[in-house]
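Researcher: Next sequence.
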Amino acid sequence: LVARQKAAELAASAGNFDLMSARQDLILNVTAVYLAAWLQQSVIKALDGTLKSLHEQQKLTADMLELGRSSPLDKLKVDVRVAALAQQRSKAEMDRELIALHLAILLGRSSHEPFPRVPDKFDLSWFPQMDSLSAAAKALTARSEIMALQKETARRKAELAQIRGERWPNVNAYGRWTGRSGLTLENSEELSDRDFLGLGLAVNLPLWTGGEIKARERRAKALLNEARAREQALRLQVLEQVKRETAAFLEAVERAEVGRKGVAQAREAFSIEKANFELGRAAVNDVLDAQAELLNAELALVRALHDKAFAAVNLAWATGEDLEKLVLESRNTEQ
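Model: Next structure:
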């Protein structure tokens, strides 16, 4: 009976851990879409900045054309670049609306409700810094999937112990007390009270169930070995996930640093080419090429920052951190 009760309790605990795992996955999916929305917003912001600069270049080229310092072909090249970027921005805006719709579906909201506020940048100070060994050790003790399989393994052990206990005699003791009141036949006006006490002892001997018990025991052993194998396989899978997400996070951090330097260098090169064009020392192609390089550098930087934030969330998930708690801490930091 004790083994049966323990097996039931372990099954309930495993179900709770499965629910926690599904909850973590849902938060991870919502965060991924939210970061995608931030990325698209940053892309649109970079395109707007480039379009603003190109509009200034359009006006400058038109003024220089009136003064005879530029050609109609130069103005046409700038106009074509403006049209191309305007089309690129329209596509980015459509992609952002699709992401907003997807996020609304995940959040169970109407597509007509206001889109959740997306900050200009993400503060990762909440992210728990740890080396790969510490991250792996934490994951093996904190991942809800592993804890669920541990409970499953313990439940299989309890079930096996329960089946093995059926080989032994089962002794049941019971007692019963009954009180009765009624009229006697001799005197119909007088009540008679009687008490009855019964005691008993029952012994069950499994004399002809040995084959059945052995078969159930073999099946219970097989289920226990299967649970242990699943637990070991999941441990190896978790270690591989932690190693992969740690490498992805470090690589994204490096790309973000390189991206910041690339943006600074591209911005300086564009300023030089723009000044040379105003002085008549450079062609409009040089200015447009420098501006395109600056836009590419800015887009590369925002993608690196997106990958850094997403890798941080993935690594937190892989190590078993409570994603809801981390998200709330991140929101409080932003506010």
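Model: The longest strand covers residues 170-183. Helices lie at 2-66, 72-107, 132-142, 144-165, 210-278, 284-318, 323-334.
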